[in-house]
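forwarding from the other thread:

> can someone predict this with FE2/S2 (inorganic) cluster?

sure thing
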Amino acid sequence: MAPLVRFFRGATLLGQTPTKEEQTLVEHALEAGLSLPTNCTSGTCGSCMVTLLRGRVDVPEALPPGLDEFLVDEGARLGCILRPSGDVDIEIRPPI
Ligand code: FES
């Protein structure tokens, strides 16, 4: 089966779409029928922050201004700039 990006709020599955590794999480959310909040769309403001529950959404070694090590450890990912790999589950709320 093709890998999927699934979006949750708590235990509720809000939508899912096949993983396209060239697309951001925000773009996947749109394809799943969801609209994640965005502002800067460049990794600076944190408006698009979601929580990685399962799978891989890699962060660059030089973290963007909207993330820090603590947030990354808590599962925070920025939907506007980061891309999923394989099967990924996302909580649409930030971790803290
Ligand atoms: S929209 Fe600003 S960090 Fe993603």
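DSSP finds two helices and five strands in the chain. thats all i got for now
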